[in-house]
Structures are given as C-alpha cells and as structure tokens.
C-alpha cells in the first residue's frame, strides 16, 4: 500500500481502497421537533429597574417594587452562528492610548448650576440622562439649557416627542428665549430622528422624552422596557460615533406601566435627577452618576413665572424664611457634592392616639430616623413610646448624608423636652449605634459656611478637624449622653 492509500494487485491494476463511511444517521424525529420548536419569545421585565424574569411575579426580585412587571418581547434571540463568522467580519479600529488626540474641552452652557452638576460643562460625545417626576420642570430646564448652549455658539437640536413644535416655541416665548437658534423637531420615530441627526451632526441633541421614542425594529409599545432600552442604545451609540452630546429626558413613573429612567442608567455616562417638592419653588438637579465629574453634586434652581432661575447661594435661600428658633428646629450644616449647604431640620414629637404611633419623614430616610430613635432610647433612656414623631427637612431638599444624624437627634430631643436649641447654632455629626458621635468630613467647610451666614456657635462630634473657623465657637461632643446632659440639662 502506498502513501495514497492505493493497493497494488497482482495484475498491476490499481484498486482504490474505500474508507468505510458510516451510513448517515437516521433523523431522530423527536430531536428534529425540538430544534424546530420556537424558543419562548416573551419574557417579563421590571419597568422600574429593568430586571428580567422568566415568569410574571407580583413583586420584582431586583428592586422590590410591586406591580411593575410587564410582558416584553426580547430584543433578539441572540446572534446566529452565521452572523458571527470571523472571515467576513469587519475588523474594529484599534488605537493606542498615547496616539489619541487630547479630548476637546468641555462645552460650558453659561448656566453655572448646570455646568457645575455636569462636572464643569458638557463633555462632547457623551450621553446624559435627566430623570424626574412629570411636571417637575425637566422640559423647562432643558429648553433653557438648549438656548444657553446655542447662545454660546453651539448647534443644538431639541427633539420633543411630547409637544408639537408650536407648543415648544410658545414655551420658549414665555421664557424669553424665542430669538435663540435652537432647532426644534416634533418626532417620535427613532429612525427619522437618527436620519436627521446624522445629516445635521449637531453639537448637542436633546430628546424629550426617551419614553416617547419608538424604534420600528422592536415589536412592543413605546415606553416599554425593550423600546426604551433599544432607543437609548441607538442614541448613545450615535453620540459616540458622531461626537454629538445627547441628553435624554426620562420620566420617573409610579404606576409600572411605562419603563422608568433607571432602565437606561447603565447605558449613559451621566445620570442627573431633577427633584423638588411640588409645593416648593426650589428644584434640585442632582448628579447620581457621572463618568466625568463628582457624583452627588447638586445645582439649585428656583421655579419662577419666567422659568428656572439659578440659585447661587442655596443656604441663604433654604434658611431665608426661617421663624424664630423654636423647640424642634435645628440648623444642619451639610455638604451636598462639593458645596456646603445649611438646611433647617424640624421635628415634632407629640402624644399619640394610635396603638402604633406614627413615624412620618419628609426629606430624609425613614429607616435612618428609626435608627436614631432606637439609639436615643437605648443609650440615653429617653423613650419615644406612645409618641408620634414627625420629621421634616425644610425647603423641599432631600438629605442623604449620615452627618445629619446629630442634627436629627437634637431636633427630636428639643421637641420632646420642649427646649429650643440656642439660636445661631449649627449642628452636624454622625451617630454610632453605641451612642458615640463619629467625626464627619469637611467640618471646616461646614463651619465656614455657617460663619458666613451669621451663625456663632456649632455642635460637632469630638475629633472633627475644625481648622481655624473664625467667629464661631465649636462645642465638641463625644457622645449622646454628653449632649443630653450639656444641652438639655438632663442625665
Ligand atoms: P415642565 O418643564 O413641563 O415639566 P416636565 O417636563 O418635567 O414634565 O414643567 C411644568 C411645570 O413647570 C408646570 O407645572 C408649570 C411650571 N412652570 C413654571 O412655573 N414657570 C414657567 O415659566 C414654566 C415654563 C413652567
Ligand atoms: Mg416635559
């Protein structure tokens, strides 16, 4: 036998040896049936957090929200083997870190509070999400921002899916922005929006709102999780490819029928929330996530008849209409982002008629209040049993800093004991479960802001680096027992 697998016979004829080939397998009818069977095409997604579930459930495992699960058609069944072929695939462009040109400078709108929250201006080719309750003023803010960017010499396109261009123009006239060069469009079809944007290549594009946009490649209603995700994905990739900054507006939804802005938070570079109490004129723009700047930065605005006005000195505004010092009222020296902000914390402790007394909180965390009450009861023996407790952060601002613990404890004790805290005093400090007070960051900045606004005294935890805060006498307290003994005259 030679190397070609041929056998020489006596007669000299060559005979090719056939390798035995097994007969083809008989098709298994059951397997075939399985392969052809369509995969389940529906899944269930939470409209609040976007978590995907195999079946409908009443409460989302991801975020704990009730009745937010909606049936969704998945975006795709995954790429088929064919589309992932290596030979025909386009090679992606690889560049060196060092060879990349210096990123262009940030664009400033000239609205100081907005630029501050963005981390010092808008980054080109970035995607920003602005979330907030319906009617809080997102469209007003973004129309003003659009006009500000246009006035600074940038090309801006404002796409409204909610209002007709005439309505947007009417609002602009009311805001005194009618002569601005912002280009308006009223459109909900994403394909048309992208075609226009690719032709125009603006510096900034505002989409109001992402829930009204509709991609015809996705087989579900506008506002559903898959639609919102698909549209946000298309728009963010447009931003990266064409260098346009894209701002998406997202309504915070309560009823679970429409996907909320949290569904796209992970796709964008910056997430801002516009918050505020309806009854108050203050509005706070808060950076929750920022790839290009500090998170937790806030910008403060005031809603006026002529739109949003910037508030450069929020402490003065939040304390502006303060009454004479009363039991239960304490001024907390807080830090919001990089800026110190003074706010008034009010507590009311009153006998309860209910078997389970009420604990009501506005502007602070309810479970944190329960913790402060428990520590007060356990470490000082002052009981709040049989008493209703109401806690309110005045001015409509929401505080999330643990440094407010001591101010809350002071407000609760002050109302409970009916003893006012000495006037012109600010309070800050974190409470430990042992009843000790823990030092907090940026004590010097807090004290400086308090001194600037005419406060003369402060209560802070022992160990705080108070620096050389002039004009303010600081009382450093080690624990709650000392606070109760020194300030409220009880042991
Ligand atoms: P809007 O920007 O439409 O809210 P969103 O886009 O978040 O749904 O704001 C609507 C509210 O703002 C409305 O209740 C009226 C108030 N507003 C003013 O007080 N002054 C103004 O100049 C404008 C334009 C709106
Ligand atoms: Mg709106």
Identify the bound ligands: thymidine-5'-diphosphate, magnesium ion
Looking at the structure, what is the overall shape?
Answer: globular
- Which bin fits the share of residues in helices? 10-25%
Describe the sheet with the most strands.
Answer: 9 strands, mixed
List the helices and strands and how they pair.
Elements: E1 6-8, E2 14-16, H1 29-36, E3 43-46, E4 52-53, E5 69-72, H2 112-117, E6 127-132, H3 138-151, E7 156-160, H4 165-174, E8 183-186, H5 190-200, E9 204-208, H6 225-242, E10 245-251, E11 270-275, E12 282-290, E13 298-304, E14 307-310, H7 314-319, E15 329-336, E16 339-351, E17 359-362, H8 366-380, E18 387-393, H9 405-417, E19 425-427, E20 430-431, E21 437-438, H10 443-452, E22 457-461, E23 473-477, H11 480-488
Helix pairs in contact: 8-9
The structure holds thymidine-5'-diphosphate and magnesium ion.
Overview features:
binds magnesium ion, 7-stranded mixed sheet, 9-stranded mixed sheet, single chain, 491 residues, 11 helices, globular, disordered N terminus, binds thymidine-5'-diphosphate, 23 strands, alpha/beta
